[in-house]
Amino acid sequence: MEKKITPTSKTQKRNEMIKSAFDIFYKNGFHATGVDTIIDGTGISKRTLYKHFLSKEGLIIATLNYYHETRYKEIAGYIEKAVVENPVDKVLMIFDLLIKLVDAGNVNGCFAMNAKTEYAHKAAEIEAVCDLHINKLEMLVEKYLFEANITDSKAIATQVIMLFEGSILRSKAIQSSAPIKLAKKAAKVICSQS
């Protein structure tokens, strides 16, 4: 009997490939990970990989979209579920979540920032997806700063995200959440002076 492939199973297989490739890229980096490594890690054929993703870059974009969807949802949910009334305190919670992640052993940094660094000025489509992730985070921060009646909430949100990004890089380098705690203090000062 011939096995029927349903659209659901195709989507499921595609999602499994994305999640496996995501783990491999996150651990090893993008340039250091060849297609053969992905194939070995996912157990699929090269033909199947290229059927779902036209190129390695297409797969990278899919993993970046996966990261953005899951991480952004995690950050927004973390803030929304908190019983914190002050919108500035909600903004500062992005640092709290980051501290928890690093303290739990996630010291690989931000997947989108890693890709942006590796592909800077080399792959516009990859950079665009990375920028989307950071821009959405900045918009989330700006939303809460606006609710707090912070003057020039857009510029302050940019500064907070710069501290956030810098603390991610530094915490990755030293494998400690200490830089994130310092960045949170600096962000609190910036927000309180506005």
TrEMBL record:
Pfam family, one: TetR_N
Listed SUPFAM superfamilies: Homeodomain-like, Tetracyclin repressor-like, C-terminal domain
Domain HTH tetR-type: 11-71
Keywords: DNA-binding, Transcription, Transcription regulation
InterPro entries: Homeodomain-like_sf, HTH_TetR, Tet_transcr_reg_TetR-rel_C_sf, YxaF_TetR_C
PANTHER family registered for this protein in UniProt: HTH-TYPE TRANSCRIPTIONAL REGULATOR YJDC, TRANSCRIPTIONAL REGULATORY PROTEIN
UniProt-recorded name of the protein: TetR/AcrR family transcriptional regulator
Species per Swiss-Prot/TrEMBL record: Flavobacterium agrisoli
